[in-house]
Amino acid sequence: MKKIEAIIRKSKFKxxxxxxxxxxVNFFSYWDVTGIGNEKQGHVxxxxxxxxxxxxxxxLSIVVNDDFVEPTINAIVKSGATDKIGDGKIFVLPVENAYxxxxxxxxxxxxx
Length: 112
Prior knowledge:
CATH class: Alpha Beta
Largest sheet: 4 strands, antiparallel
Order of helices and strands: EHEEEEHE
Radius of gyration: 16 Å
Distance between the termini: 12 Å
CATH topology: Alpha-Beta Plaits
Low-confidence stretches: none
Strand order of the largest sheet: 2-5-1-6
Number of domains: 1
Number of strands: 6
Mean pLDDT: 90
Structural class: alpha+beta
Shape: elongated
Helix content: 10-25%
């Protein structure tokens, strides 16, 4: 099992969510985060200058069986990309075990 953590643009969340559902990832957690990225310059929109040093993003936490890692990553990359700086990052971490609280199931079967 692997834990996939993804930081994406908030504006791409709906597309990423639908893409994940399309590859069979139907459960994940997410929350809004603020981070500091590589882009240091500000932008001007309708005459108002704003800083891009601190960026609002959405953080996704997804635990999948090993055979779902590549489809999950591909779904996030394809649906979350805008081809501009600040599209986000994906991290893959090992998961030692998982448990379903209701039934006591352990291991990969607890994810379904």
